[in-house]
Write a structure and sequence with these properties.
The chain has one domain (7-117): Up-down Bundle (Four Helix Bundle (Hemerythrin (Met), subunit A)), CATH 1.20.120. It is 70% helix and 0% strand. It has 6 helices and no strands. It has helices at 7-27, 34-38, 44-49, 60-82, 86-91, 98-122. Helix 1 runs parallel beside helix 4, helix 1 (7-27) runs antiparallel to helix 6 and helix 4 runs antiparallel to helix 6 (98-122). The radius of gyration is 15 Å and the shape is elongated.
Length: 123
């Protein structure tokens, strides 16, 4: 397990979920399961986050909460997509939706931590 994490990659991966969910809505299928999508331990960041190195992250408990909430909301949208409830699933991606808010909250927190860690390294 790595002792550090590439925050840019983590942010990109979690931002990419909106695209993956849109694909699932359009196709009515996904390579991802609802169970794995809802599991915050399943993605690479989640595996790192729950490792000894991840537990040293600033604001650790807040990040864990935001990350879990993000995956729960992504799982809800994916479930709707796989049930072919396209309109409801699309509503779940709209600005202000629980998924959209969870995504923004997680990404904003990760950006703040990345900036803090970069400023500590520099000075």
């Amino acid at each position: 397990m790595k002792s550090s994490i590439d925050f840019d990659q983590v942010i990109q991966n979690h931002s990419h979920w909106k695209y993956l969910l849109k694909q699932a809505i359009a196709q009515g299928q996904s390579e991802h399961t609802v169970i794995h999508t809802r599991d915050a331990h399943h993605c690479a960041f989640g595996k790192w986050l729950y490792s000894p190195a991840g537990k040293t992250l600033p604001h650790y408990l807040k990040v864990v909460e935001l990350h879990q909430h993000f995956h729960e909301e992504a799982g809800k949208v994916l479930k709707l997509a796989l049930l072919r409830h396209s309109n409801e699933a699309l509503d779940g991606l709209k600005l202000g939706s629980p998924f959209n808010q969870a995504s923004a909250n997680l990404i904003n927190q990760l950006c703040e931590i990345r900036e803090t860690m970069e400023s500590v390294k520099k000075g």
